[in-house]
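The material for today's practical consists of a large collection of protein records. Getting from the letters to the tokens is the skill we practise here. To make this concrete, we reproduce a full record directly below:
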Amino acid sequence: MSEAVISDWPAAKETGHPPVVELFKVTKRFGSFTALENVSLCLKPGTLHALLGENGAGKSTLVKALLGYHVADSGSVMVGGHEVAMTHPTVAHGLGIGMVYQHFTLVPNLTVAENLVLSRDELPVVIDWAAERRRLVEFMATMPFAIDLDRPVAALAAGEKQKVEILKQLYLGRKVIVLDEPTSVLTQQEADEVLSLIRARVVAGQLSVLMISHKFREITAYADEVTILRKGQWVGSGKVADMTTKQMADLMMGGGTTVAAADRREGPPGEVRLRLESLRADDDVGVPAVDRVSLEVRAGEILGIAGVSGNGQKELVEVLAGQRRATSGVIRVDELPYTPTRTAMRRAGVHILPEEPLRNACVGSMSVAANLAFRDFDRAPLVKAGWFVSWKAITARARSLIERYGIRTTGPDAPIASLSGGNVQRAVLAREVDGTARVLIVANPCFGLDFGAVAQVRRRIMEARNGGAAVLLVSEDLDELLQLSDRLAVMADGALVHHTTPAATTPAELGKYMAGHP
């Protein structure tokens, strides 16, 4: 472990500067499974420290030990040079340590102001809202971006909600903040805006940040130091300026195990496989979410759909997956009218890789083998004599797919809910991208995945395209869209508002259309 910068916490608290935070030889076990083994990390005052590792590498367990959600089996947490028993999150909060989670913790039906005020650990029985309002207005005046304090959180876009989550920690006076994938729902411009705000406070010595991220662009642009975990163990750390992204990736993956990108097969695309004509659909409360969307995707091409979360992309994919009814419009596959049912999907070769696959494409309590068989459990060779389901065949094929796609599981009989997010994604990928897809619909396929899983997912999507599938890729990751797409469209307020190609655009230009300001 690098030499620590020791400071006195009470003195640091009085001056408003963040303390040094150290985790020393932290070990955490869950039964016979060791999630962390002798992991050390030093977060120096006034620095932004990146935490890298594959899904399941122990990153979440480490920060939960820091925040008091897990009590370490051995090792210590030191704040300002003093060892602290992190037995509960309130201990961390009392020391000025907070966390912005990957999933929102806001109350949707309350306003931004109410969420900020009610987030405090201690509140009076009767809240003086006039005084709280004055305090909030003064606080917001120091922030470089504006959020309407009176808007209900439910009315905010995902990017705005993420900003509120970060504002909440700053409003609570946290001097040390853990960020868990803080820009996963932001446009590149929004990500740079938020990280620039945080970086400015770090440089000013007002804040220390430990950031979990898989985006090397953001790590190299904003982080001072990095610690890398693999399989629950520390494998490297150092100054970001002294390391290349390849070195960081090799440490994450064990060196020499990164997945090579698939080459793009050149040549004109084929016939139109998927066509939407003036498609409309409502959201869950009956408000129009998809507004007269028309598009076509040809065999052997990827059409990427960019957009800030909450602009109709989710509802569009749900219509195509048969999870939501269209209110009007036509879907055609191979120029024939198409209604997304299991039978129609199988007949037309339509495959879906949805967002949040554990929730939208799996039954969590069922085995990995059973989930891998959902598409064709009632067809040979998984059935015998036309009706008898062969679990031997299902298990044998599951073992083959587990090995081929690198699905990390205790075995085919394990409940799929016991897998990490990246491995659930690998399992659904193995089921859906199997070489028979004629139309492949993919939604945010790499959300929250580690470097290795991202590379594998993107390679498989490109291989499907090269094999002649028509791919509709809906993603909030501009780098992903620019890397994979042949053509691009931007979705805003439920409509397609801009069409271009990766070669003819930039992230900044796409961001303007995504934000509704072309």
